[in-house]
Design goal:
The protein is of the alpha+beta class and 84 residues long. The chain has three helices and five strands. Strand 3 and strand 4 form a beta hairpin. The longest helix has 11 residues.
């Protein structure tokens, strides 16, 4: 399994009560399942509205189970932001 850092921003950071934390997962879907297991409350609801970057690349509409994670990589959890 790849060791990755999940970084939370804005409402996701508030819900997780941490800025970042380590996970072991091979796909984005596995990493997000682990996040939901560790944070079953508000963060689970916030994740429904989030977009994600994996190593700086937008995930977009790709299936999370198809997005492979690299050892030492980073997943950015980005809730919708106001303004533009």
């Amino acid at each position: 399994m790849a060791k990755v850092t999940v970084r939370y921003w804005a409402a996701a950071k508030a819900a997780a009560q941490v800025a970042e934390e380590p996970y072991e997962a091979d796909t984005l879907a596995e990493a997000l399942a682990a996040v939901r297991e560790r944070h079953p409350g508000e963060l689970t609801r916030v994740l429904l509205r989030c977009s994600f970057l994996v190593d700086g690349d937008p995930v977009g509409t790709r299936g999370h189970e198809t997005v492979r994670l690299a050892d030492g990589g980073t997943v950015e959890v980005l809730p919708p932001f106001a303004g533009g």
